[in-house]
Write a structure and sequence with these properties.
Elements lengths: L1 H15 L4 H10 L8 H17 L2 E3 L7 H13 L15 E4 L3 E7 L2 E7 L1 E3 L5 E4 H4 L12 H11 L14 H23 L14 H14 L1 H7 L1 H11 L7
Parallel strand pairs: 1-2, 2-6
Antiparallel strand pairs: 3-4, 5-6
Amino acid sequence: MLFRIWKQWRRGRLLARARPEQFDLWSEMHVRPWTRLSAEQQERLQRTAWVLFHERRFEAIRGFELTDEMKWVVCSNAALMLLGVTDYYFDGVVSILIQPEAFLLPQRDRWIVKHVSSAGAAWQHGPIVFSWSDCQTGSPLRRHGRNVIIHEFAHHLDGLDGEMGGSIHWPTAELSEQWDELLARELTGLQTKLNAGQRPFLDPYAATSSAEFFAVVSEYFFEDPVGLQNHHPELFELLTMFYHFDPRPS
């Protein structure tokens, strides 16, 4: 209880401080949905990102030189996901690691372990890792509804119920059951389309697993909400309830 009060007091003092002007400019440059947000939402995003910037621990890997702008790119995009909530700042994220390029991660295929190139990774009760080249606005993973920053922080939110498996935490058993049924149906539908050689709206990577499906649709929810609503209206409606936010232009 005392720790929570102290944390709130510290955050209040932090938010009372003026932000450097370049931080506002960086938000406008690097948060793609920025112009869709109202002035009030923009300010809320900035304040949330400001807390993340100061409270989350960043580390550079392989001698990479980490700048304030790089940290703000991560924080401001992650803050998009918190526009509908209060008093949560990804407190469970142990640290955020950034390295210059994509990296190799081990992946098990039955008895064979392969190493695959990755732009990001998140671990249960562990750090989040990003490739800086894939976090930048002009990278392929920041186009066409994709955002690797949102993707990995979505994995973290997925893990708040104890497992990163796509079955995200809901306030009621009814909503949880509704989500699980819709997730299974949508994932099967996407896999069926891909097996038939059809080109779906969602990135094919969403068909990998339930966890990846949730992370990918979270990207589209914030980056291309109108497209997601048009192609997957039930998904969009439930994600609006989960994130307590409607990202469509007002």
